[in-house]
Design brief:
alpha/beta; five-stranded parallel β-sheet; single chain; globular; two-stranded parallel sheet; 45% helix; 307 residues
């Protein structure tokens, strides 16, 4: 069994009936990105993040976002040492390899912005001191749907830094039966054992980045992204960062299928998760109750996939 399969099977012991979501989270990990999980409370967003973190021998930190969470609670701060007569830098929880930002849209925009530098630059700056974040680095954000009380919508700049936005959804009836059975047996929340090291993930990321992606597929990805900038239902289309994320995630998807080359389906399917949350719909599209996912699917269906 390959390393990807070992990691996936280990997570499935804790997250029942959500194989597709697990696969996509691993794809983001190997593509070097960050993932945003949005869904109603109680469907396992935090459990999924913990299942990944516990399956890896990596440093882990959880940030429970609340309205009174301050930026320094995330990045860290300088504290004056009476003994040494100087300031000492105390790194915050973001300086870890796997970081869970739980209920990220329940904290203020100022605190949300504190994640921006870390997610993009892989470092934090505290009173002029830059601290590098160790590899591999991944932020897993969870948020409640915007319709729920007490939420602050994430700004577009921060949404663009998440490679994928995923929804877990309710379990099927059969999965619910198994969840209930495991819960009554007391094994549902058993501790997940680490099966891969940080070095394993770094090596897998390097291998995924070497997956061949044909020029025709690159042009296809460019055309799809270009169309998001011209479509009549979209006010603001996908960024250049979105294009790069699409290509890298497509490579990772192929790697998960044990291929050293991408196929058209890799780009087509990956685009459904990488691009929609980055699109800002026009007022007319919103009035017609169109979703970002619906518009994205229209664009994909209107662009022929290379053969």
């Amino acid at each position: 069994m390959g390393k990807v399969a070992v990691l996936s099977e280990n997570m499935k012991k804790r997250i029942i009936g959500k194989d597709d979501v697990i696969r996509k989270v691993i794809t983001v990990l190997l593509a070097g990105g960050h993932v945003l999980l949005e869904d109603v409370p109680g469907v396992g967003k935090t459990s999924l993040a913990r299942a990944l973190a516990d399956s890896l021998s990596c440093s882990f930190a959880r940030i429970q976002c609340t309205p009174d969470t301050m930026p320094s609670d995330i990045t860290g701060l300088s504290v004056y040492s009476m003994e040494k007569g100087e300031f000492k830098v105390l790194p915050g929880p973001i300086v870890n390899q796997i970081v869970l930002a739980d209920e990220i849209n329940r904290t203020s925009p100022k605190t949300q912005a504190a994640l921006l530098e870390a997610m993009e630059e892989r470092q934090v700056t505290i009173d002029g001191n830059s601290i590098s974040i160790p590899e591999p680095f991944m932020v897993i954000g969870t948020q409640n749907p915007m319709e729920m009380a007490g939420t602050y919508p994430l700004p577009e700049a921060q949404l663009d830094r998440f490679m994928m936005k995923l929804s877990i959804g309710y379990p099927s009836k059969d999965s619910s039966v198994q969840i209930a059975d495991d819960f009554l047996k007391g094994i549902l929340h058993e501790e997940t054992q680490a099966v891969l090291s940080a070095e394993d993930i770094i090596q897998m990321k390097e291998e995924a980045a070497k997956v061949e992606i044909h020029k025709d597929l690159v042009n296809y990805a460019v055309n799809v992204v270009e169309e998001t900038r011209k479509h009549h239902s979209i006010k603001c289309g996908a960024s250049p960062r979105a294009l790069l994320d699409l290509l890298r995630a497509s490579q990772a998807r192929a790697y998960l299928d044990e291929r050293n080359y991408c196929i058209p389906l890799d780009v087509f399917e990956t685009a459904k998760d990488v691009l929609p949350h980055r699109l800002i719909l026009s007022a007319e599209a919103k009035m017609n109750k169109m979703s970002q996912e619906t518009v994205m699917l229209q664009i994909l269906n209107n662009h022929p996939v290379p053969q």
